[in-house]
């Protein structure tokens, strides 16, 4: 999830710090909320699924349209991908692009991948935020 517009940045940073500490303590990736969405043990507004990924609407949208594309194979961080992940990563980006088009984001959109503590990653399961439907600002952080 992204930070909310009312001081949510600190909330997301705190979540990222907690998730980073959990990863350091456990040494391996604990089951994430996204794993539970994939296996349907918690609900989500899933609007696309194929053999490799799932897309669902963000519960805390930062724009008129905000959804996530996540791989079914849990990769904790973009910084931990390997050569073997090339096909999956390409599939995620192509899927994000096709879904953005289907959702009417013809004027453009932003793709965001948070990585690690300083990137404010709060869920250690690779995910692409697709955010659009309004003019984005710059710089983003």
From TrEMBL:
Family: Belongs to the HINT family.
Active site: 127
Cross-referenced SUPFAM superfamilies: HIT-like (SSF54197)
Gene3D superfamilies: HIT-like
Region of interest called Disordered, as start-end residue ranges on this chain: 1-21
Catalytic activity from the UniProt record: adenosine 5'-phosphoramidate + H2O = NH4(+) + AMP
GO molecular-function terms, A-Z: catalytic activity
Basic and acidic residues bias spans: 8-21
Domain HIT positions: 33-141
Superkingdom of origin: Eukaryota
Motif (Histidine triad motif): 125-129
Protein name, entry field: Uncharacterized protein LOC115459559
Pfam families according to UniProt: HIT (PF01230)
């Amino acid at each position: 999830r992204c930070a909310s517009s009312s001081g949510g940045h600190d909330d997301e940073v705190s979540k990222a710090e907690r998730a980073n500490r959990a990863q350091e303590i456990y040494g391996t990736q604990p089951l994430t909320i996204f794993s539970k969405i994939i296996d349907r043990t918690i609900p989500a507004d899933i609007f696309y699924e194929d053999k490799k990924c799932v897309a669902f609407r963000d519960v805390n949208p930062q724009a008129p349209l905000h959804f996530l594309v996540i791989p079914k194979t849990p990769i904790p961080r973009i910084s931990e991908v390997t050569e073997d992940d090339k096909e999956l990563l390409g599939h995620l980006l192509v899927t994000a692009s096709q879904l953005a088009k289907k959702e009417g984001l013809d004027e453009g959109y932003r793709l965001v991948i948070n990585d690690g503590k300083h990137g404010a990653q709060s869920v250690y399961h690779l995910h692409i935020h697709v955010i659009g439907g309004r003019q984005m600002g710059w710089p983003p952080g």
